[in-house]
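[job 0412] stage=fold_complex status=start
inputs:
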Amino acid sequence: MAVRALWFSDGTLHLLDQRRLPLRRTVLHLRKVSAVAEAIRNLTVRGAPAIGVAGAYGMALAAREGRHTPASASRLLASTLPTAHDLFVGIETVRSAWAEGNDPLEAADAYRAKIVGECLAIGDAGARLFPDGARVLTHCNAGALATVQWGTALAPLRVVHARGQKLFVWVDETRPVLQGSRLTAWELKEEGIPFSVIADNAAGHFMHTGEVDSVIVGADRIARNGDVANKIGTYEKAVVARENGIPFYVAAPWSTFDAKSPDGSKIPVEERSSSEVESFGGVRSTPPGSSARNPAFDITPAKYVTGFVTPRGVLRAGSIARALERYARPDPAVG
Amino acid sequence: MAVRALWFSDGTLHLLDQRRLPLRRTVLHLRKVSAVAEAIRNLTVRGAPAIGVAGAYGMALAAREGRHTPASASRLLASTLPTAHDLFVGIETVRSAWAEGNDPLEAADAYRAKIVGECLAIGDAGARLFPDGARVLTHCNAGALATVQWGTALAPLRVVHARGQKLFVWVDETRPVLQGSRLTAWELKEEGIPFSVIADNAAGHFMHTGEVDSVIVGADRIARNGDVANKIGTYEKAVVARENGIPFYVAAPWSTFDAKSPDGSKIPVEERSSSEVESFGGVRSTPPGSSARNPAFDITPAKYVTGFVTPRGVLRAGSIARALERYARPDPAVG
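[job 0412] stage=fold_complex status=done
writing structure:
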């Protein structure tokens, strides 16, 4: 059975608890919008496209509860995390359906189906970037867990693997939350795709020694000029990739593109609790009384991105604005 | 009392167990060269200059045991780790004294005193690089723990702090062994120098947002042309520093310079156990059956290094060869 981050049935949103992977496979069953908001905040569900779908179903649950308005439910869910643009698109899609008297659950289902379909299209569009024997580096998790199914960065890799091509994936462990070693490694193992987990510090080394052919990552928000907000560390990998002449790709559905951000300078970067840096799997690593900073994202300027893998093909930064006018849904009112 | 990584008394080498810091302050008492070799291999003592001093005292213990020759003891200790050049210098210094009929312990004591003196000189030489209010990034631990006392990269920071200058240090946690969050944070806390620990992934972000004025690191081996072998991740930080116009300094005593390596291409890079990447503090992060790679060092080409902070001042890469002829001791026969 394919990996799925979440699904909805019997008035319940089922979420694979990504905080416990890979050691435990636990599913949470949520029936209230407040519980969905908390699950987004605490990273039970993560990855911008999956967060967007969770937000959409959160709106559908709010409509069933009967004590929320479209606007109040939207505000509650939109306040959870500031960076992932998909969250606001998912919420707004259902809010407008609800406000117009349409079925919120139908709108959420349609939104989920759209995201899954776009991930499949990203897989097809991106596959040609990875020739037989490609050794590909990825950062964080932009797989099925981040997107409901298939993934963004991992979708083209699934496609070339399914075609029988030889493939090897370098997996940045992605401190502090270890989405690479916990989640991407788990997905690749389930698929039978060969990989090695490395400390984030080692990515540059393997680029420099000629053992990385290309890099592909997902995104939390992409500005109109192609500046990319993504998991902390993405910027370093992009700079070092360019320094070594290695192509750097960003894969995302349309919901990740933010037509209202002209560039990356105004994208809010969430700073999370310092405890994520000060400990590892519950084991404290810093001395008592220590201090830590924990920005969860960084901004990679468009000039470091070789191509954007979208449902409509691989685009250069300069083509994003026009593609958004053609293919992306209207800007959300929230966020 | 100042931090000391090791000291020798009553026929015993005392080592602060750096694997247990910062949560436990345990001292190991070693009387055999085989125990010293194991302590070097398992990172009880680490940091190239401190490893060199431990190697020197290991030779002195071997001479006392009575069942080793200078050559056999030298081979045993030199086989522990391949990258840190200081190890071979420390061993060779005592080996040649012993082979010539001089007191090995006196030679080891003299070697320790020389390294401590050079670290003090590095502190004085490097202090002018850090003006009042400097915000300095460091990677791994190149402090007292890495060098017996004072440190290499941390020595100039200790000096400017002691002078009453304002100073802030960004501490890369330095996965996989976390020498930054465990050791550098501990040293800075003991000194009262303000700092924040960050995930290695965040270093580039803070460089890019203008919050890092300069970078200073230690080294495990420096080739004659200025290529630097240092803790994995150093290369990434150096590339991103240059991309952002931030000075990048490497501080080291003469024992770290390897006149026999014309450049970094032939420096052996140790690959350590994948278990260091797959877990922390006994907590596993990757799925069972996962695979990991764990290069412990990387090579930073000389072009990324703004200056080398040596006991004789701050040098450009082009001046290293001549400085070695003047100031460094002859090349070791081992290594």
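[job 0412] summary: The CA atoms of residues 271 and 295 of chain B lie 4 Å apart.
[job 0412] exit 0
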